[in-house]
Write a structure and sequence with these properties.
- The structure is a single chain.
- The chain is α/β, with parallel strands linked by helices and 285 residues long.
- The chain is built from 9 helices and 12 strands.
- The chain folds into 3 domains: 81 residues, Winged helix-like DNA-binding domain superfamily/Winged helix DNA-binding domain (Arc Repressor Mutant, subunit A), CATH 1.10.10; 95 residues, D-Maltodextrin-Binding Protein, domain 2 (3-Layer(aba) Sandwich); 90 residues, D-Maltodextrin-Binding Protein, domain 2 (3-Layer(aba) Sandwich), CATH 3.40.190.
- The protein has a 5-stranded mixed sheet.
Length: 285
């Protein structure tokens, strides 16, 4: 009897959900060639081709569709088993992952809504890339993350989030010269989007301030040290959304989503997840 390692199935499902080997590798913490080898090994073990290749594009064969359906169920059962066996005594503890800007804006209201309920939280704040990595590794139950596109696995809710340049309230225009950027560390989608837009438009820029703290970003921008980009509706008090200009080109929307693990999809945790989505203003997937 042949056995199929779950890491091969997870690589396959992630490639489909993220529509590519490179993005799948980023989410799973592996290089793109490693993901390709895993898919090749999976096809060798099964003995059928999972992808059709026509005109440079890839799509699933009939066997690939069947494999995807089973893979999702196998991984869901696998992850649920691990959660149940490794969380003995955890009771109503929810492991929540959320980016700094969303935590600052929405966590107080959410915690106020669950005050008095028999629930405990482990909260991780980080850039979305790292939160999704921990989610896929089973370290988090519920994650709010910002991505270029919607992810498929575990999606509870999703919505488009317009981005805007953020500056001090009196910054009517950006000073001449390279745009001074205040940014989160590498891995932040806001940072990547800013750099991509500026590079594409041929705008000169200089990264002058890097921090993992939203409070520190706000302080630097408020002092006029530079500008940053955030979701428009998360513009902090005392700062201003700047209109696009030649120096600051329009920023594209990103996709925000709430993702729930098998454990978070149980009845009690699902109620908390739904309440969290309601507080954030998410749209059900």
């Amino acid at each position: 009897m042949r056995n199929i390692p779950t890491d091969l199935l997870r690589a396959f499902v992630t490639v489909i959900d993220l529509k590519g080997y490179t993005r799948a590798g980023e989410q799973l913490g592996r290089a793109q060639p490693t993901i390709s080898l895993q898919i090749k090994r999976l096809q060798e073990l099964i003995g059928v081709s999972l992808f059709e290749r026509e005109a440079g594009t890839s799509r699933l064969t009939e066997a690939g569709e069947v494999c995807l359906s089973y893979a999702r169920r196998i991984l869901a059962q696998h992850d649920e088993m691990l959660v149940r066996l490794t969380s003995k005594g955890a009771g109503g503890r929810l492991k929540l992952g959320i980016p700094n800007d969303y935590a600052d804006r929405f966590l107080p209201a959410f915690l106020g809504r669950v005050q008095g309920q028999d629930v405990r939280f482990d909260v991780a704040t980080d850039v979305s890339l790292n939160l999704l990595r921990d989610f896929r590794e089973g370290l988090l139950d519920l994650v709010l993350a910002v991505t270029p596109d919607t992810l498929g696995e575990g999606t509870l809710a999703t919505w488009r989030e317009p981005l805007t340049w953020i500056g001090p309230p009196d910054a009517a225009t950006v000073p001449e010269g390279p745009v001074r950027l205040v940014v989160y560390p590498e891995g932040c989608l806001y940072r990547r989007t800013m750099l991509s837009v500026l590079q594409r438009q041929g705008c000169a820029f200089d990264i002058v301030y890097v921090t993992s703290s939203l409070t520190s970003i706000e302080a630097a921008v408020r002092a006029g040290f530079g500008v940053t980009a955030l979701a428009r509706r998360l513009c902090p008090p005392g700062l201003a959304a700047l209109e696009p200009s030649e120096a600051l080109p329009s920023l594209p929307d990103v996709t925000a989503g709430i993702y729930a693990s098998a454990r978070a999809q149980g009845r009690a945790m699902q109620r908390l997840a739904g309440l969290f989505a309601e507080v954030v203003g998410a749209v059900p997937a």
